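Quick one, T. Sequence first:
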Amino acid sequence: MKKKLNIWIFLGIIFIIFNLSAATELLSLLMSIRIRTFVSVVSYKMVLNLLRIFGFVISFFLTSRCIKNKKYILGFLLLYVFAFVFPYLINNERGIAWMRENNTIMLHSVYTLMVVFVDSCYAIMLYLGYDWFNKQKRTQELEKKNLQSELSMLKNQINPHFLFNTLNNIDSLIKKNPDCASQSIVELSDMMRYMIYETNVEKIPLKKELEYIDNYMALQKLQYFNDDLVEYTITGNPENIEVAPMLFIPFIENAFKHCTNKETKHAIRFSFLLDTEKICFEATNIADKTQSISKDKTSGIGLDTVKRRLEILYPKKYFLEIQEKNDLFCVSLMIKIND
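Structure tokens:
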């Protein structure tokens, strides 16, 4: 209903513009034509402008129908034929005397056809632009919904391999280190609560995202005997900064999963550089191509999905570089958070 109302408001504005144009033409005619022909000329100009408005509106709606059904092209042909014969239809005993006296009926027929054709072209271009804009808007909305669905799948389907390993590690800690086991349970609970309940918005405070990353890394470390496996630094203040949820965790998850030597000190490195204008994130892990690693088929959001999210949520506001060099897998991401 709202869409139809906007169309009619637009057509009303076009009607006013055409009539203002007609009024200007009439004022010029007052200065240039004889009084005895004034009424005839005014009548023709007014009727011609009504015909132009009629042709514009008809062309606009015919274009919308032609996209679905080509047979409506016949409507344009009928409109142009009507425009051409229009001066003949009004050329009768009570019609426009000055046109008949000067024997310019054919000339006015051609002129009327050209005017209606040009207005028709404007209407066609207007509708095509209007239709393109709506399609782009629907496409973006659909892409956002698809990405939101993928994010929901991640939240509702934690990587089973990671979850089972974490529970097994916590179970082994219950007797050896009850306090550490209790803390791990709290961290896992916080992660699940965050994923399920707190990421149902377009943006969240960066501080909460960093807390989730801290919990994730703490639980990952339970699987390995290397206390110095990860080097993690944050430079800057995360307060008053908001980002899209679950934006960095795929890179962090990927680094843990594909690191080929987890016994080396600082085999995995993460860093955040924060300021009021941008967020810079880097992730690096050892990735020796000669060594094979077991890959879990039930991973979370893939890197391709992250790229699509960035393109939609931060269009022309991010820089992402992923490369492999010197047996290292490196990710560099920069996001502008303010225009």
